[in-house]
Amino acid sequence: MAFVAAAPLRLPASATSAVCGAPLRGVSAPTVALPRLPGAATIRMDVTTVVGDGEPLESALRRFKKDVNKSGHLFELRRRRYFETTAEKRLRKHTQAQRKARMARNMEARKIVT
Collapsing DSSP states into helix, strand and coil, what is residue 44? Predict the structure, then answer.
């Protein structure tokens, strides 16, 4: 089974015209392909990064990676790589709830201090 993760990447007209000779409106590869299992839902996750004129591609790539991490693409792909039993799902949700509660307590403590 192959996993393909891609998201739209918007390039400025100047960058595409330098490469192709003609300006393109935007380049996109819009979906994350997950293995198709019977009864499995298709999930579409889009991340868009707009590259400004004269912006270095390195900084645009850095912003794109940050957006992909924020969107949860990689977490979802890793989670779906293998079958998750009910007990594992329960444990994962429990640890997520603990992490969320800890973050809420920390944010509340910061509000009190400030």
Answer: coil
Total count of residues recorded for the chain: 114
Residue 67 neighbours by CB under 8 Å, 6+ apart: 7, 47, 48, 49
For residue 67, give Cα distances in angstroms to 4, 34, 61.
Answer: 17, 20, 10
Q: How many CB atoms lie within 10 A of CB 11?
A: 20
Model pLDDT for residues 41-99, shown as the tens digit of each residue: 566 668 888 888 888 999 999 999 999 888 888 888 888 888 999 999 999 999 999 99
Axis crossing angle, helix 57-71 with helix 73-80, rounded to the nearest 10? 50
Position 90, amino acid: R
The C-alpha atoms of residue 108 and residue 114 are separated, in whole angstroms, by: 10
Give the angle 91-94-99 at the CA atoms, nearest 5°.
125
